[in-house]
Amino acid sequence: MTAPVIEVRNLKTYFKTSGGIAKAVDGVSFSIPKGGTFALVGESGCGKSVTALSVIQLIDSASGYIAGGEVLLNGSDITKLGEKEKRKIRGNKISMIFQEPMTSLNPVFTVGNQIEEAICLHQRKTAKDARALALDMLKKVRFANPEEIYDEYPHRLSGGMRQRVMIAIALSCKPDLLIADEPTTALDVTIQDEILKLIKELKDTMGTAVLLITHNLALVANNADTVCVMYAGKIVESAPTAELFKKPLHPYTQKLLSSVPAISMRGKLLDTIPGTVPSATAYADGCRFSGRCHREMQGCKTIEPVLVENEERHFIACHLFDAVFLAGVNSTHVTRAEAYLPHIKNALVKGGAIVEARGLKTWYPIRKGLLKRVKGYVKAVDGIDLTIKKGETLALVGESGSGKTTAGKSIIRLISATSGEVVFQGRDILKLGGKEMQGVKPLMQIIFQDPYSSLNPRLTVKEIIEEGLIILKPGLDRKRRLKKIGASLEQVGLSADMMSRYPHEFSGGQRQRVGIARALAVDPEFIVCDEAVSALDVSVQAQILNLLKEIQREAGLSYLFITHDLGVVEYIADEVAVMYNGKIVESGPTEEIFLRPRHEYTQKLLSAVPRL
Ligand code: SF4
Q: Which of 295, 302, 316, 326 has the most ligand 1 atoms within 8 A of CB, as the residue to mutate?
C-alpha cells in the first residue's frame, strides 16, 4: 500500500467565540495516498472547510487554534512547525483552490505575474525560467493561447478561465497535496466538467493527492476514490466511493443521498432532514445527529457513538452498528413520523397557458465614440417563444450568460423588453400603462438566488413583506396586512411570531422561505424562481423544492424555474426550454428532452452533468 502523502490524526480545531469555544473540527482522522482523491462531504457548518484550512495551516490565529492532533505531511507533523516553515509548505507542498477564483487572484497584476510570483516564492528560478514555467503551466491547463493569457488581467477572463489560472498557480510548484474547496460550485456544468477532467489529468501525470470538498454528491461519486461524511465537526461515515454510494449506512448519509433531486422522484416529495446542524459551541453529550435522526433510539442522546470499521474500509459512527449498545437498549427504534414521506398526487387540474412570450427580445445598445453613438447591440434575449401552463413548471436552462435571467425579468417587466409580446391572462402586458400594470404586478412575482442579499438586512421580516403589500395591495389596512404576513410565513413553514426578527437571525433555508413568503403574500399566480435553490445545501434544497411543489399543488401556481442544475430540472419541471446565446435552441416535455435531446448544445449540457 502506498505511503500516505497526508495523514490527519485526531485533529481538533477550535475557535474562541463570544458564545464559548466552537469545536469546528473535533477529532477528525483520515489519510490520502499519492495520486488519490479524497472527498469530504456534509452540510454547511459541519467543519469541512475548517478541516482543509487546518491541513494547510491557515487557521486564523486571532481566534482559532489547533487544540489537538497531528497533520503529517510525508510523515512529518506540520502543526509543530514555526510560521516561517509553514509558509514554505503552503503553495509549495500543499496548494489550495477556492470556490470563487476572483477573490483569490490579485486584480492589479497580470495572470503571468501571479503565476511567476508563486514559482519564485518557492523555487530558485531565473526570471526567464519562471516565465517559461508559467507559460508551460498555462498550456497544461489548456489555454490555447498561453502568451496572450499571460498578459491578461483576471477581470478580463471568464469564471472558468480564472479557475484554470488558479489551478495553474496551485500546481506550478508541483505540490504533494492539492486542496480543492468547492472548486466548481460557481461554474456552469460544462465548465465544471472541464475543470474536473483537468484536475484529474494533472493529478494522474503529477501524482498529486487531492482533497476535494464539495456539497455536490454526484460530483464526488464521479471523481473521488474515498468519501468521508462529516457532521458537526466529526466524521460519521467513511468508505471507498462506490461502496458508500451503493450502501450508505449512517442515517445522515442516507438522508443526504435521498434528498438529491432526481427524475425517479418526480411526483413525490424529496426526503428532507429536519432541523439544522447544531452550533459548534453547544454540542450535546450523545450523538450529535440525535434530534434530526429518523432512526434515533433510547440512549442516542446521552452516549456518543465512536467511529468503527463495520466492513472492510467502511467506517461508521452510529449505535445502530454497535452490537453492545443495541443489546443494552430496547431494540425497538423510535422512528420519527416524517421518516418516509408519502407520495404526493398532483390534485391540481392543469390548465392552458398562463404566460406566453412571443418573439421576445431584450437588446442592450453598445455605444461608442465621443457622441456615444449606437454601434451595435448585445442581444441578451433574441426573439424567444415560451409558454408556461397554469399549475405547471417550465424550466429555463443554459449556461451563465445565455440570457435566462434577462428573459425571466423581461417577462415580469422587471427589465424593459425591446420588442415582442408577453401575453398574461390574455393581455399583452408589455403594452400596459403604469396604472394597468399595477393590477398585474402582484400576480407575477420573483424569488432570487441569494436570499441574504435580496432581503434588506436593516428591516425586520414584517417590514420586508409589508413593503410589497403596501405597494402592490394598497387596499389592505394595517390589520389585514399583518394577518396576511403571518399567514404567508405560516404557509412556508415559519411561525408568525418570527416576523419581528431580522434576516441575519435566520438560517440560509429559512431566509429563502422568507423570500418565498414575500412573493406569496401578494397572492401571485406566476412566479419566476431565479436559481432559487442553487445557493442551498442539498438537505435545505430538498425542503425548499418540496415547499414549492406543495404550494403549486395547493394554490395552482405556475413557475418559470431558471436554473443551471439539471438534477433539479429533472425533478421539478413539466417542460424544459434550453437557452443558448439569447435563443431557445430546444424545448419540450422534461422526459423527452432528458431521454432524447436533439440539439447538439442540449446533448453537450446533459453529458456534462455528473450523476450519482
Ligand atoms: Fe441516529 Fe442514534 Fe445513529 Fe445517532 S447514533 S445516527 S441518533 S441512530
A: 295
